[in-house]
Amino acid sequence: MATDDLAPAALKKLPSWLLTQSAAHAHRIISEAFAAGEARGYHYRLLATLAEFGPQSQASLGRRTGIDRSDVVAAINELSAANYVERSPDPTDGRRNIITLTPTGQAQLNRLEALVQQAQNTLFASLSPSERGELTRLLTKVLDHHAAGS
Description:
This protein has 150 residues and is mainly alpha-helical. 69% of the residues lie in helices and 11% in strands. The chain has helices at residues 3-6, 9-12, 15-36, 41-53, 58-65, 69-81, 103-123, 129-147; strands spanning 56-57, 85-90, 93-101.
């Protein structure tokens, strides 16, 4: 059944309700895409961050990705075991590790990006390219507002 058949009109008028319902579908579709790539969302977030910002500490990766410190360590362990990243001592602070994306990790990121794009196409199939752009712009505006603490 479609959402219109199940939900009361009062809920269907609430952007927050629509967003949470859409987020549930997004989570399922993206999780399935990552599973097809033998990965998890954390892996993609970490690899994409390393590709864009270069080598950095585990703490920095956690801050940039919004992943809890202990989850960063576990995900880095998994990525390291697959040779997607290398962990080495920070030359300026021996207590820290620097994480670097490997060529194998870049190849995995490329595979995951293709899967993520397919998932985006599935999730937003009902929207035109301009509508997708507008949705992205509006969601970015909402997220930036709350991220700024307003």
